[in-house]
Design goal:
It is built from three helices and six strands; from the N terminus they run ββαβαβαββ. By secondary structure, the protein is of the alpha/beta class. The longest helix has 14 residues. α1 crosses α2. It has a four-stranded parallel sheet, sandwiched between helices. It has a two-stranded antiparallel sheet with strand order 1-2. 30% of the residues are buried. The chain has one domain: Rossmann fold, CATH 3.40.50.2020. The mean pLDDT is 93.
Length: 127
């Protein structure tokens, strides 16, 4: 089940009442999502890295399109964007001096910090 009604705390400590359970997606669906990202992201990237746990399968699907050239940026991906904390921590810890391209599949609100999303929920304050 992709959508679950469940109370939980996000990585950033935000209480949430529903969850996108991306573990329900198949390898074929991750491959399709990777192709969708590639239709929008035209910049070459050296490798794809997934923010654990949610971004790993997406990174696996995207990595085969990497150039393996050190001069190209690293593509960092995740399944769900909530606050951007995971992207900030992951990129600052692992790639502080590298050019990074950032993508996610689902965003619970409009993204910041240069993160792009395939599907974005509206900001609740704007409704």
């Amino acid at each position: 089940m992709l959508f679950k009604e469940v109370d939980f705390i996000s990585h950033a400590g935000v209480p949430l009442s529903w969850k996108l359970e991306c573990e329900a997606l198949s390898i074929a669906e991750w491959s399709c999502l990777a192709k969708m990202i590639l239709e929008y992201e035209k910049r070459p990237f050296s490798i794809a890295m997934g923010i654990p746990r949610g971004g790993v399968l997406l990174a696996n699907a995207l990595d085969r399109y990497g150039t393996n050239k050190a001069k190209d940026p690293i593509l960092v991906v995740d399944d769900v964007y909530t606050t951007g904390t995971s992207f900030r921590e992951y990129c600052e810890d692992l790639f502080p001096d590298r050019d990074v391209i950032k993508w996610c599949v689902f965003a619970r609100k409009p993204t910041t910090d240069g993160v792009k999303a395939l599907f974005t929920m509206p900001d609740i304050e704007d409704i």
